[in-house]
Design brief:
By secondary structure, the protein is mostly beta strands. The chain contains 3 helices and 15 strands. The strands form 2 sheets. Strands 1, 2, 3, 4, 5, 6, 7, 8, 11, 12, 14 and 15 form a 12-stranded mixed beta sheet that branches. Strands 9-10-13 form a 3-stranded antiparallel beta sheet, with no helix packed on it.
């Protein structure tokens, strides 16, 4: 009986000692977020500016509308950008980057100046964009129609790619790729495109872009050759965006970037190539 009373008393004590503790999570200081990509393709240059948001409050975006923004080709011309809306600053005319030249972004806001510089990398065009039918029981990929790219890398340097693939003008896939992928690169450099049925029979499969396509679909692939720093930024950003709440997730952190003075985001100068295909039967 005494043992039962002691157990009940202990349970009462531990229950009575329960207390809800509110942990105050510190908020990071407000910092500017700079997002910009300019290319070798002639187009309007644009830069989007906003302010960072607390980790647990991502419902709205605070755009910056009162900054001074310009981009300079080092040793060349300066292009001023004007504010439009939703944090977007746009050049009045179209411009294009030149391989081997460096470009510097300059943003002045709230008494602070932020800069970033990148050089346009060399790139080869996409040789071909092709489709094929994958029969059942040939691969762990489901049977169906797929598309794949074939191209070549610049052997004089390390190459880092971002591929964006659209189906009927809707973005379906964004893939990172580099020389380290070797024979399983999205470029499929060693695949014999003149004998696709024979290659499939020999179990030599191209690395496809992983979504199904149908006859009549218009597929557009945009290949971006980027710097190693931007490639790592995008890989880190993907890791943060794909956090699933498991112990294997990376700790929450801002990806490394090329913005000076504590700014966030990235200013990228990329070599863009485009290929398009209408899927046939």
């Amino acid at each position: 009986m005494k043992k039962i009373i002691a157990i009940l008393f202990a349970a009462f004590v531990f229950t009575a000692c329960e207390k809800i503790v509110d942990i105050e999570i510190p908020s990071e200081e407000t910092r500017i977020v700079i997002e910009s990509e300019i290319y070798n393709v002639k187009d309007l240059w644009n830069v989007r500016l906003s302010l960072n948001q607390p980790y647990f409050d991502q419902d709205s975006v605070d755009y910056v509308s009162s900054a001074s923004v310009f981009i300079t080709e080092l040793g060349g011309d300066t292009v001023f950008l004007n504010y439009t809306d939703t944090g977007m600053y746009v050049s009045m005319d179209s411009h294009q980057c030149i391989v081997g030249r460096s470009y510097e972004l300059n943003v002045a806001y709230n008494g602070q100046v932020y800069t970033a510089t990148e050089e346009l990398q060399n790139a080869f065009p996409i040789d071909q964009l092709l489709s094929f039918f994958l029969p059942p029981d040939v691969s762990f990929f489901p049977s169906g129609n797929y598309v794949f790219v074939q191209g070549q890398s610049d052997s004089t340097k390390n190459n880092f790619y971002i591929f964006k693939t659209y189906r009927n003008d809707t973005l379906k896939s964004t893939d990172l790729d580099d020389d380290g992928f070797g024979s399983v690169s999205l470029l499929n450099s060693n695949f014999n495109v003149n004998d696709i049925p024979g290659e499939l029979e020999r179990n030599n499969l191209p690395r496809p872009i992983l979504f199904d396509v149908n006859e009549g679909d218009t597929i557009r692939v945009e290949q971006f050759v980027v710097t190693e720093e931007y490639y790592k930024f995008r890989a880190d950003l993907n890791a943060q965006q794909n956090r699933s709440g498991t112990p294997f997730d990376p700790p929450p952190a801002n990806p490394n970037n090329n913005i000076s003075n504590g700014g966030l985001g990235y200013f990228s100068v990329a070599n863009k190539e485009v290929a398009e295909l209408v899927v046939e039967e």
